Amino acid sequence: MKIFYNIKQLLVSDSGLPVNGPEQNKINILENSALVTDGELIHDYGDTDHIFKKYPDAERIDLRGNIVFPGFIDPHTHPVFGGTREDEFAARLQGVPYSEIAKSGGGIFVTVRQTREASKEELLASTLKVLDSMLKFGITTIEAKSGYGLDRNVEIKMLEVLQEADRLHPIDIISTYLGGHTIPTEFQNRPRKYIDFMLKEVMPEIKERGLARYTDIWCEALAFNCKDSEYYLKKSREMGFDIRLHANELSSFGGGIVASNLRADSADHMVYTSDNEIREMEEAGVVATLLPGTMFNLKSEVYAPAQNFIDFGVHVALGTDFNPGSCMSENIQMIMVLSAIQMDMTPEEVINAVTINAAYSLRLHERIGSITRGKKADFIVLNIPNYFFIFYHWGFNPVEQVYKKGSLVYSKNEGVKHVSKC
Predict the structure, then answer these.
(1) Is the dihedral of CA 399, 405, 410, 412 positive or negative?
(2) Residue 422 has what pLDDT?
(3) Phi and psi for 374 in degrees, rounded to 5?
(4) What is the CATH number of domain 72-361?
(5) Distance (Å, rounded) from C-alpha 48 to C-alpha 39?
(6) What residues contact residue 237 under an 8 Å CB cut-off, 6+ apart?
(7) Entry pTM
(8) Which residues pair with 327 in a beta bridge?
(9) What class is the 2-70+368-416 domain?
């Protein structure tokens, strides 16, 4: 048993439940407190003197007046890919819209070609590098997608890379098969044929080998329409996959209704979303996972209506959407700042969105996402005077230490500790 003491502010949750509506604007801060872990789990927390008396034989670790958050959770990432696309970024800076780049053979298809050419070893090395960066920013669990193969062999190769990365790296990875990222050139103008190919030729092996928990599809004019998206996700669920989707990123396309009809765990992006869709999502229990880094990168003047979602009672989560095309950043802290500035979320709403609600987006809220007795001891130590400071002093990384399941897996002095989970 270990006591972490000399904590200036400790963010805790006695209930450990996800929050929505007015509750998303509330956090529970213990001042000058202590945290007790027992192996991989959070055991207790409270007044330091009381904790010392209650556990006199526990090992004591001085956190030097820093503050402690739950580990950040990123519920939407694309970390496995070949190559980069900085040339497209330069084109967008000159005013070329993403949709035009995609229609001319750029966008996702560039990364598909490069990922098909990359070896599994190359993809694993680059993915582990991304995970190291995420960990340094305080991320302890991610959802991670395939989607740059758009065939059988490369999609499975990507999921195998994620499986191996999960084994080798401290960050826990929840894998998603995103064969529905877009329609490959081999099936151009035949979306239903491609969907049937995925369902019959790719997904049975993925399911049999346990390579992915989720399936995902891009419900958008550039990719799959609502009818095909709903058909695919329904069939995916029948095969035993949990479901989530990209929706309403570039236009008001009805993706929120698709998500609601199927009671998907999460609908992501949701930039152009009507009040009617938001109501339907609330009634169906669909989490809105918002990704402001993408809109920032695309130079958009429009961001997802975060306050509308919150006002209607939808659970709001936040993610980086780390990917090589529209958000090449692992920095969840920058996403937090963007959410406050561009989407008018309060610091408290944002903190809940990258912790407990992000866990809820992955339906992992009973195990992670908050400092709660009995949950996994995933927490981060921040060298800032108070929790608000992470929004005020942006552009630097205040993470001093990261603990995963009670063990120190990163410190600023020693770097990342790679320990196999097997």
Answers:
(1) positive
(2) 62
(3) 95, -15
(4) 3.20.20.140
(5) 20
(6) 243, 262
(7) 0.97
(8) 323
(9) mainly beta
